[in-house]
Amino acid sequence: MQTITQTLVKETIKKRATQTHKGSFGKLLIIGGNAQFGGAVILGSSAAVYSGCGLVTTATDPHNFTSLHARLPETMVIDFTDKQTIQTILKKVDGVVIGSGLGETPSSLEILQFVFQNIQANQKLIIDGSAIDLIATHHLVLPQAHIIFTPHEMEWQRLSGIPIKEQSEANNHAAQQKLNATVILKKHHTEVYTNHETYQLLIGGPEMATGGMGDTLAGMVGAFVTQFSDNETKSILSAVYLHSFIADQVGKTQYVVLPHQLIKQIPQTMAQFSNQND
Amino acid sequence: MQTITQTLVKETIKKRATQTHKGSFGKLLIIGGNAQFGGAVILGSSAAVYSGCGLVTTATDPHNFTSLHARLPETMVIDFTDKQTIQTILKKVDGVVIGSGLGETPSSLEILQFVFQNIQANQKLIIDGSAIDLIATHHLVLPQAHIIFTPHEMEWQRLSGIPIKEQSEANNHAAQQKLNATVILKKHHTEVYTNHETYQLLIGGPEMATGGMGDTLAGMVGAFVTQFSDNETKSILSAVYLHSFIADQVGKTQYVVLPHQLIKQIPQTMAQFSNQND
Amino acid sequence: MQTITQTLVKETIKKRATQTHKGSFGKLLIIGGNAQFGGAVILGSSAAVYSGCGLVTTATDPHNFTSLHARLPETMVIDFTDKQTIQTILKKVDGVVIGSGLGETPSSLEILQFVFQNIQANQKLIIDGSAIDLIATHHLVLPQAHIIFTPHEMEWQRLSGIPIKEQSEANNHAAQQKLNATVILKKHHTEVYTNHETYQLLIGGPEMATGGMGDTLAGMVGAFVTQFSDNETKSILSAVYLHSFIADQVGKTQYVVLPHQLIKQIPQTMAQFSNQND
Amino acid sequence: MQTITQTLVKETIKKRATQTHKGSFGKLLIIGGNAQFGGAVILGSSAAVYSGCGLVTTATDPHNFTSLHARLPETMVIDFTDKQTIQTILKKVDGVVIGSGLGETPSSLEILQFVFQNIQANQKLIIDGSAIDLIATHHLVLPQAHIIFTPHEMEWQRLSGIPIKEQSEANNHAAQQKLNATVILKKHHTEVYTNHETYQLLIGGPEMATGGMGDTLAGMVGAFVTQFSDNETKSILSAVYLHSFIADQVGKTQYVVLPHQLIKQIPQTMAQFSNQND
């Protein structure tokens, strides 16, 4: 396994060119958040916006529109059951994050399948939370796209069939090859499996063990792969690294780091890594 | 009476082990907040999340979902009259906080009784606010569980039958024995009655005399007893201590300390106490 | 005219006694905020809570419940057309603030009249904004209570019949005598007319000239007269003074001071004035 | 082209006179924000209030009322389809900002046309976002008013018919003359075309390339032209300058600057520019 390094992150977060506009930094559709789990999609959308994604649209249960906008006026909202609007937006975006707080009802399944039918081969597709379980339960066939899974160990067990205790590098790698997708296996010392290589994160601590941290990572990954699109693997690894790096920084003075606190530190931390490669 | 000391708190808030995940730090269900008193459950849920509880679900009047998520995306929400979902979640959690802003209508009573019927003997059950009054009014039989009451003096009078002026250590202790539950008697110099001992808090001041402080304590106690589960008494005493400790710190420069201000200081203060026992 | 001095404020904001609870520091009912002007009652309620009022209930249009709780979980909410609940709460509170954003519809008038019928002679009644205009338009008879009006110059013209240009101390005093109420006439160098004396404020600046500042003052006055109830005039003058004092402090570095920014400084500023009279 | 200078901004943001009230600093109606794009009008309204506009009313889809008030209690809200109330308010305001997140449905068009029919020749009318596209699509005739357009390059192409690559100073100036309105052409080095002169902004960077920045500028322009009404061109240029100046300041330590972060810095920055012309 290769270790994810600060050098890699610095190479990825380049200084922005001056002749750019919001469309230059990625357009992302985030789909998730039923009436019970709306917080998940609030966190994911916030993470994407604070990570510098140029334009974020959030497709969620309409019950979440107000709380989302009360926290994040920078996002646009649509009803996640409104297929026509989702289809329109799917044609314009560079990537999709689906699954955080989506739920596992027939309606959740229908939304996921609709995205699978309409995603394009050149788009990024981050699959998180409930969407991973829906795929495992219903044996869904993956679409043609740049797919990135973000399971924790139990979700990975359900998706790959590998029990947690047998989740060795070799077994995980074999399962990743079958999926033909990148896998971010969230755990103490998170591992990232790509088609070519396996990476390990050596930072991050137990101050991160709290609800919503995974949703936050999914939003960051979505923003990074659409914004730093010239190197997909590096953009994924950078999001994974910064997520834990910020938590460790905040965790020096906090017993637990809340996801929304982590999110607010993203712009400053990205600047630090970016400025170092002047 | 024994005095609650900083040493006790430091022994309780241990450094977190690295090989952990959000499930390692307690799963808590918080039930309360009717349409009028929604703020109570917002404060209690926030206190629990900021205290490091791994997973918090808030069962409340649906009118409170949006304001709760606007302040705290890290919690999950359910309708507190949805018995089926409450039952499902009750099977998974380590503890329940019930009563803050619950109200005393027939519907409130029904929710409380449903929890009493479904709580398990090994679970923690923190009973606060309206739930205390409902028990007193309707002479409810307590279920088998690790029960912790958080009354202020008037609520304790109603629950125990002891008039405020006669709430001596001996009388309170006798009443606690009959209840066979821990009692946190909130007052100037709060007292904690357990089956084995009586403790007194010597910190905390009148800057705390404002609405919502009790709801905040209930959420902290819920987070502490499920997170630091190897010593229930110490975890209770630590929550009680920190609640007043933070208020006194903030109160050095504020005439009144708002509960939501206290809550935001919890992660830093827990880190201070934790780091001191390196 | 007497000048309102810092000394007076320091004498008013006494250190809190230790043997107290939230009921010791005033119970206040704030009534206002129709669907259009909900912000007014959010600001007034926030000002009251941050001023240390022990228990605040906000009666408003239900459309405002969520935004209010999203900003201020420390308040309780009721529908301002729910007469039965208003009546119940009116029996328990020490004071009422009515009028900020109330509107001037028949429904607004009905609410105001209901409060006039149910207020008790020993209660404080702060009359602000729309309520002042309703009284002027409908020639309402004032109830027996400790009444405090908070008009700006145009509202005072409508209430007293004195054109702005003729609002001299003598004319204002005569009108105040007829009303038999305290009048806080908001203007550059605000004046306070009581039954016995006239006071003038020599601080406050144009950084305060923005929507919501008056609603904020009404909430502060409500909190001060119920909390520092041993001297009504001094408590009124202290609220008036601190409102402008804080604005001037914040205004040293801001071109305009938003009411919600002023509100957040209240607890610290009260502590400064309180600590100086050790 | 003339460069927009700090000196110009300092001359514009004069110290406020003491004998003033909220009506002295501009009354503004902001119209926009359908259910999907509510964030746009939250940002625009916030920008206007933080820029010192005395009284702001926001006409928007009622679904946005709660999120708006949760962030900004200082604004008043009305339903943007309520023609009667819009008409009443139009008679009182000094200016209107229309278009941010308005959408392009028949209902959006109807609102825009209603404003065009009721605006008065002496009022300022800032036309942003969807409203620009509606004018281009439906070939609307502009009303008599002080009109200011705030297009980005693509919107300008649609409005003027000039392809982005051909948007030279001469071509833009000719199109501006035909429109007989001020045009703020948002781009890297934003340009401002008035009837008499062309101005260029030499500050601002790619940290601003994120959704909501344009809505923020529209709100600032609305506040500046109604507040500093003695010199319309200077007030426009000052808003344009400060918008980018603040972003560049915050951008020194952040990789991306979120619009709501920029907005919170407006009062301090205006004070800096104002104090320098003591």
Question: What's the arrangement of secondary structure elements?
Answer:
The structure is a homotetramer of 278-residue chains.
Chain A: E1 2-3, H1 6-12, E2 27-31, H2 38-50, E3 55-60, H3 65-71, E4 76-79, H4 83-90, E5 95-98, H5 106-118, E6 124-127, H6 130-138, E7 146-149, H7 153-160, H8 169-179, E8 182-185, E9 191-193, E10 198-200, H9 213-227, H10 232-251, H11 259-264, H12 266-275
Parallel strand pairs in A: 1-10, 2-3, 2-5, 3-4, 5-6, 6-7, 7-8
Antiparallel strand pairs in A: 8-9, 9-10
Helix pairs in contact in A: 1-10, 2-9, 4-5, 6-7, 9-10
Binding site for AMP (chains A, B, C, D): 186-190, 214
Binding site for (6S)-NADPHX (chains A, B, C, D): 40, 101, 152, 215
Catalytic activity (chains A, B, C, D): (6S)-NADPHX + ADP = AMP + phosphate + NADPH + H(+); (6S)-NADHX + ADP = AMP + phosphate + NADH + H(+)
